[in-house]
Specification:
387 residues; six-stranded antiparallel beta sheet; 9 helices; elongated
Length: 387
Amino acid sequence: MADDTVIGIEKVSKRFGGFVAVHEADFAIARGKFFSMLGPSGCGKTTTLRMIAGFEQTTSGRITLEGKDVSRVPPYKRNVNTVFQHYALFPHMSVFDNVAFGPRSRRTGREEVSKRVRELLDVVRLSQFAERKPGQLSGGQQQRVALARALVNYPSALLLDEPLGALDLKLRQAMQLELKRIQREVGITFVYVTHDQEEALTMSDRIAVMNEGHVEQIASPEEIYDKPASVFVAGFIGVANLLRVTVDSVNGEQATVKFPDDTRVSASSAGASFAIGSPATLMLRPERIRLSMTEPSTKGARLGASVAQLTFQGPLVRTELRTSDGSEIVAHIGPDDDLPALRPNDQVWLTWDEDAARLLPIADERLGGEAREIEEIGQVHFARSDA
């Protein structure tokens, strides 16, 4: 483990009877980072968080905190705090007393308690509400009280289990920015569990995408989105066109693939090994596709298609297209695109830059129904998950 590692997850597995909730998770969480565990319901992210907190014990492997093995250490002896979706504030106490509860329980001196509480209330922008009761605060304000209370004892890491789930959309979006600001100001490692891709992309320094108890990929938000390591990651994060192709040739990290109608295009193989003639999945993000009414004169990737449906979505128009081989593709038309008003059945050409297409192995058989469904459809998958 690196010197800046706060939490180490070393070959950790968790079984409940015959069910494997987490399968040999192995990664490190660095000091001062906002680290998110992202995935659909039942993927093992909350179980992993509970093992870090000590609420669940590992079946195998070990968990380290500040370099010490805490796999069998009870929760109250681990220097981490957890914020849940339900904040559990003391309704009869003021905001100040709620935040002060932790250090007072540890018999910290009065002056030090007051100093810490006022510093944290400044960070969460609630100094003027110090004497109010929780019932006199909004949902977002109550959450910030819960954050201050969890941070006031200066834990090695703060664990957050979908804390924004009970808030409405606008408040959730505002709190995403607030959480990231608070994390940067206090400099404490945040470990955040969510099924919401927008939350993870907005706040995180690193994201671990999980599925069926396996860690599919750990990377920065930009890399997770632009360079997914698997079909599952590509489909779960944002919107992706996932198209069935056959590998025609391979040259280093570039491959030529062909569609069922024998149209050939280039794509990055990103270091993965592909056998010539083998099936694969070509990923294209809708915003990387350009549309034109006439066949492009320049060389490069191109496909002919017909417009199937148009959906106005404010800043963009979601355009569903169908190629001659029946493949379905979604492209986004923005306000800067110089196109006439398209209608269903119009014939168009699709083009994209070579670096926009990414070649991925077909879905692993061990993956869950959502990932297999992506491959069975073989076309467009919109990220969906149950809470």
